[in-house]
């Protein structure tokens, strides 16, 4: 169904654009201004238990330092001067909490607001006119992407979507580690497997890359070039393997993000740009050499045992770190990361988001300490304030089958790849025979992978239960959420009626109907919280809760009632509002809504 099936008469929509929390804030502000001449920020939350009201505020506690009175006394004063017309009841409880119980007509007005805004509902303006950069994945092109990379990829994709929804001009960026020892090991590993295929084995590098994928690359070289690469350099093998693996990485991300492979990222930032002594690249105006020079001038770099060290302890970090190795003269990860972040700031972004795995916990703090020292030392312009940089650290993913960890992969030797995970789920999907196809199975499987990785906060470990992920029942949270959506689609398949008037909304007075509207009303605040805290799981959790409330409503109330046209109109409007919010949430989470299950 499309939005055009509903013609909502604008003349019948209320002019105010306040949602329920804003309404409570407005009434509290009026009372506070009248009493104290104050316009303090007001926190309004949804209580955990319904007996504490529909909404609650702790504003009395916030006013205590200024008014120098007990919060309970302040709360009682505010309530005594409050316009209570939108509420059934307002009460002061405990040491000063103010609880609000809404009138049904007040709740119905919130539904009108959603229907008016339609697919603009939940859009924000907090980033309007600002530029944001989100760096994520940034995996070395030394192997296929694993489920560990998958969590970071999905987090970065959804955070980018949230920032775009908030009005930011977002640059999605992949820091391409195409330099250093790991890339050399990749070349050595492929060369060793290639020589094995030609019957001229050499010792495999001690820290080389194992796994079937290395053999696959070696076979490609053999098939294309035969024995002509017998004397080829390690660099030549590295370049071939790098190109092959990065093409696969882009294909995998295209699949996971549902984007053309050439649009997955806006910029692939090459680490080698930072090594050039006199770079003309506008994206890399500060090189590794320049960072070393600046750190020396500020007294934060020194030589010891032939290596160059970062004097991190002078900046409050627990230990000094090597920046350039003594035996090879190659930089460690920290030096190019410092240069990269200096360049990020110089590129003029208003917000910079880094998404890293838990193994970066110490590294990023050293890097940011150095960048801050450079800024405070005058090496970076005043507008390059490191406070613009926000780092999100995510924990690991544990893949479980039968309650036991799954670790082995034929291709990777130690880890399961993103493609293997999607394919395994896809092989078990059973959908409506009329709609079953390769694409619908693919869509559902990608939905499962994305949603399972978004249900928990980034700082929590994820136990990805493969058995649950494959279930085609309400036990599977993805199925449960999608089933709510397909139920609404089935309603509109049966009825092509449009809304003639919003007067019928007054008939929505049942507990389940009002509970559903109140949950819909929470959506803009959930989106704001998810955006400001870089916390996509807020939306994933909200969607599951909304689906549960909708299922409860659907199972207790008949939407299409031939004997009551007014109530049918009202419930159709309610279902349409749920559809709007689900589709908006799906778009932010990168989920594809099915037509049927």
Structural account:
This protein is α/β, with parallel strands linked by helices. The chain has four domains: 10-102, Arginyl tRNA synthetase N-terminal domain (Gyrase A, domain 2), CATH 3.30.1360.70; 181-262, no CATH class; 266-394, 3-Layer(aba) Sandwich (Rossmann fold), CATH 3.40.50; 472-597, Isoleucyl-tRNA Synthetase, Domain 1, CATH 1.10.730.10. Helices cover 47% and strands 12% of the residues. It has 19 helices and 15 strands. It has helices at residues 20-36, 59-67, 71-80, 104-117, 147-165, 181-197, 212-225, 234-257, 288-297, 334-346, 361-376, 418-426, 438-454, 466-470, 477-494, 511-521, 523-532, 537-556, 565-589; strands at 44-45, 55-57, 87-93, 97-102, 131-135, 169-176, 267-270, 301-304, 307-310, 321-324, 351-357, 389-394, 397-401, 404-405, 462-465. It has a five-stranded parallel beta sheet with strand order 7-6-5-11-12, with helices on one face. Strands 1-2-4-3 form a four-stranded antiparallel beta sheet. Strand 13 (397-401) and strand 14 (404-405) form a beta hairpin. Helix 6 crosses helix 8, helix 9 packs across helix 10 and helix 16 packs parallel to helix 19. The protein is globular. The protein starts with 19 loop residues before the first helix and ends in an 8-residue tail after the last helix. Mean pLDDT is 92; it is low at 1-17.
Q: Separation of termini? A: 16 Å
CATH homologous superfamily of the largest domain - what is it? HUPs
Radius of gyration: 29 Å
For the largest beta-sheet, the strand count, sense and barrel status come to: 5 strands, parallel
Low-confidence parts: 1-17
How is the largest sheet built, in terms of strand order?
7-6-5-11-12
Number of domains: 4
State the helical fraction: 40-55%
Number of strands: 15
Looking at the overall shape, the CATH architecture of the largest domain is 3-Layer(aba) Sandwich
Q: Residue-averaged pLDDT, rounded?
A: 92
Global shape: globular
CATH topology of the largest domain: Rossmann fold
């Amino acid at each position: 169904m499309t939005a055009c099936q509903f013609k909502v008469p604008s003349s019948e929509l209320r002019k105010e654009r306040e949602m329920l929390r804003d309404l409570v804030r407005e009434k509290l502000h009026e009372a506070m201004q009248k009493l104290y001449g104050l316009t303090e920020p007001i926190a309004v939350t949804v209580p955990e238990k319904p007996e504490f009201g529909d909404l609650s505020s702790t504003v009395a506690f916030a006013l205590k330092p200024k008014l120098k009175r007990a919060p309970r006394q302040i709360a009682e004063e505010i309530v005594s001067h409050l316009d209570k017309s939108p509420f059934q009841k307002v009460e002061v409880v405990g040491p000063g909490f103010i609880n609000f119980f809404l009138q049904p007509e007040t709740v119905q007005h919130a539904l009108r607001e959603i229907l008016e805004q339609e697919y603009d509902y939940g859009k924000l303006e907090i980033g309007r006119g600002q530029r944001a950069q989100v760096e994520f994945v940034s995996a070395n092109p030394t192997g296929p992407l694993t489920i560990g990379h998958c969590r970071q990829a999905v987090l970065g994709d959804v955070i980018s979507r949230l920032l775009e929804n908030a009005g930011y001009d977002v640059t999605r960026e992949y820091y391409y580690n195409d330099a250093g020892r790991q890339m050399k090991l990749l070349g050595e590993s492929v060369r060793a497997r290639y020589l094995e295929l030609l019957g001229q084995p050499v010792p495999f590098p001690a820290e080389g890359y194992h796994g079937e994928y290395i053999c696959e690359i070696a076979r490609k070289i053999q098939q294309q070039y035969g024995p002509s690469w017998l004397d080829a350099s390690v660099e030549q093998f590295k370049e071939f393997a790098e190109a092959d693996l990065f093409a696969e990485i882009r294909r995998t991300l295209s699949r996971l993000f549902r984007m053309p492979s050439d649009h997955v990222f806006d910029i692939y930032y090459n680490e080698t740009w930072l090594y050039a002594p006199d770079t003309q690249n506008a994206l890399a105006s500060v090189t590794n050499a320049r960072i070393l020079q600046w750190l020396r001038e500020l007294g934060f770099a020194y030589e010891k045992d032939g290596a160059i060290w970062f004097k991190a302890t002078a900046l409050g970090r627990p230990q000094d770190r090597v920046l350039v190795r003594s035996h090879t003269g190659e930089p460690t990860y920290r030096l190019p990361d410092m240069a990269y972040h200096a360049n990020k700031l110089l590129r003029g972004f208003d917000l910079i988001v880094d998404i890293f795995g838990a193994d970066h916990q110490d590294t990023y703090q050293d890097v940011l300490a150095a960048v801050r020292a450079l800024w405070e030392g005058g090496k970076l312009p005043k507008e390059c304030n490191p406070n613009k940089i926000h780092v999100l650290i995510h924990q690991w993913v544990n893949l479980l089958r039968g309650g036991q960890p799954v670790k082995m992969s034929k291709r990777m030797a130690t880890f399961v790849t993103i493609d293997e995970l999607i394919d395994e789920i896809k092989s078990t999907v059973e959908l409506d025979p009329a709609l079953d196809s390769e694409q619908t199975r693919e869509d559902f499987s990608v939905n499962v992978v994305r949603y399972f990785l978004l249900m928990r906060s980034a700082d929590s470990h994820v136990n990805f239960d493969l058995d649950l992920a494959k279930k085609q029942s309400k036990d599977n949270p993805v199925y449960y959420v999608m089933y709510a959506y397909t139920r609404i689609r089935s309603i509109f398949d049966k009825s092509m009626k449009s809304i003639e008037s919003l007067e019928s909304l007054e008939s929505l007075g049942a507990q389940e109907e009002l509970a559903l509207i109140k949950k819909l009303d929470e959506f803009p605040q959930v989106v704001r919280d998810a955006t400001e805290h870089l916390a996509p799981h807020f939306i994933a959790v909200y969607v599951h809760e909304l689906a549960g409330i909708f299922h409860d409503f659907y199972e207790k109330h008949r939407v299409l009632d031939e004997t009551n046209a007014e109530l049918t109109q009202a419930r159709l409007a309610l279902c349409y509002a749920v559809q709007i919010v689900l589709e908006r949430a799906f778009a932010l989470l990168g989920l594809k809504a099915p037509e049927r299950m």
